[in-house]
Design goal:
This protein is α/β, with parallel strands linked by helices and 792 residues long. 36% of the residues lie in helices and 20% in strands. It has 24 helices and 30 strands. Helix 8 crosses helix 12, helix 9 packs across helix 10 and helix 9 crosses helix 12. The longest helix is centred in the first third of the chain and has 20 residues. It is elongated.
Amino acid sequence: MTVNELPSARKRALLADALRRRNSAPSAYPLSFGQQRLWFLEKFSPGQAVYAVPIAVRLVGPLDVAALRASLDAIVARHASLRTTFPDQGGEPVQVVSPHGSAAFEFVRRPVPPPQREEQAQRFSNEQAMIGFNLERGPLMRATLAEFGEDDHVLVVNLHHIVSDAWSLSVLASELTTLYGAHVAGTEPRLPDLDLQYPDFAVWQRDQMRAERANQQLDHWVEHLAGAPAVLTLPTDRQRPAVQSYRGALESATVPASLWAALEAMCRARGATPFMALLAAFTALLGRLAGQDDVVIGTPVAGRSDANLERLIGFFVNTLPLRVSTSGDPTFAELLDRAKRTTLDGLANADVPFERLVERLHPQRSLGHSPVFQAQLILQNTPPAPLRLAGLTATGLLPDPGVAKFDVTLAVEPRRAGRNLALEYNTDLFDRQTVEFMLEQFVGLLTDAVADADRPVSTLAPLTGLRRWQLVVGNNDTRRPLPPVATAVDLVSWASAGPAVSGAGAGALTYGELDEVSNRLAHVLVEAGVGPDVPVALCLDRSPAMVSAMLAVWKAGGCYLPLDPTWPQSRLRLMVEDAEPAVLITHRALGDRLAGLLDGTSTVTVCLDESAGRIAAAPATRPTLVAPPTQDHLAYLIYTSGSTGRPKGVGVPHRGVVNLLSSFAELLGVETGDRLAAVTTLSFDISVLELLLPLVAGGTVHVVDAVTAADGPALRRLLVDRGITMMQATPATWRLLQSAGGPPPAVLVRLCGGEALPRDLAGDLQRDGGLLWNVYGPTETTVWSAAGPVEP
């Protein structure tokens, strides 16, 4: 029997059933461009709350839970976006809209004593905001109601960004207010009909992108961003990870009402808007911090160009990458004009989805940061519609899902008194204190700019009051009186009775022996014409003789030039020709290495082995100099590595050495019983601290020979055998020692410098309770210009 042969009643029943099935079947639509990008980004962090859009409110009073649930059901039924899922169809997503649906609603009872409810309300809202979504299965809107007490509840509604945006939260709050009030009163809710749904917008948007106007707008953005920096190089507390984790946090500050009123008045006078002024100030701050005069900042726009879209819940927001330059050190007024032009041009070309722009630009992709821009500015021009549920006192909460989509996002929101600044930041990059300081700087810069917009941006002070004094004056007030001596020779504890220097070769020297040996050699140097600022080359194996030679040069009034005997002769020749040392002090064993080095020069060679008799016959007292050196004369002349070209000589005065030794002796608390292992070549300036610091406090320096210093197990055995208590080394040497079992516990003070100190090595060097110092300084600043203990 065919369908036509069925009775009429049966035909009608079958037709009605077919219509019901068709009406209840989900419908598939293409994604909007923004949804498509979020769908792909979700693949990198599935199930996380990176793109959560939560709203939370504390409700005090008699809550009708059934009315609340019914109201949320009505909102889901009203908006297609809330009944949508995004299945993967062969690597390409579609949005599937179910014709019917109800809200995912959970009611939990969590009795909390009244004094703790405020804190627990915030914690509960944060917990709910951190729960992720499944785009394929849904639901993409969840409502959770917690009962803390009979008339005390917290409602958290969390939506995925792919079906909502900030404007949508206002729509949600407004409709929930209306629907709940009607349900409680037993009346029919009055909400305007929706002529469009989100899928209609997605289809329309794709059609629009085929129009000529869309190509013109794309061309604008391509031209606008041509040559823009790929990354905003803000100074971070940690290195940027290879893959972005999106871990984040939120810090807040306030723009006082008086400052905001002054900012608005300035903008009115200059034909600008507060957003433009904020963009100029944020650009100035980020550019200053990053050391860049070209900054790209993203900002969201509503993307609801049609009035019919204003009542929908969905993902309409678009992002504009606004590029502003601070080149030429403009006044703030001039920078405001630049921000104004950029903003107006951006808004005139705001229909192009940011996702299409990224496709067109083809920026070099990195999993470690977002493309095009890494800083975002959001100005909430109008407060969101408040959630007012009949018979209840509602207090809005700000859920923190613990995520950050960008390095930094500054949101400026209305408050009864001024504006609230909420800075969302990536916790992989920044510490809380850094972000607090950044907010403080922003308010300070804004204050200065509003007070005098005609000042150059470079002169705007990002800080005021006590903080400014602390950073500009207090932290930099590192002046300390220098000891009343001309050279470091007079800092040495010559009266000490213990050993001063030990090591290979001549064995150990007491302070008395070191004084006598260096005095005799100093007389020989004076006879050879050595005096203030006259270089004396030292090409010696690592032994106590190296220390006595250094001191002898200073006692003769000269400055020493280290020549590492392991270096190529061509490099040594370059330094000798450039510095023209009056004397070369060396050993007989190094004769082959130095053959021909002094050819054509007037340099006199003093071989410690061959001149031993002559030196021994010299007076044992310190020579009296006709022109003794002062703190401004050179202590040593050292050459850079030449990694950026020809090596250059750096002359370091006695003043710097005296300051270095006296400061570190106090900083590290060096005592008579301390023994420091010197492991660094004399041609690396950090050897100055190693060889002389113990002598200032009556301690002992042990000069480690080059072979042992490069052998981890041998070095560790030496540290144990010699009872070493302090050591300074580069990270490479510390790793070498670490691989041999780590520094012995007796080596309590550990200095690391010369290269970046990795966090894992720092942790290893502190595991046994050792005191680790991280030190830094270029050759030109007398070894170390900064030092600080590393926190475990």
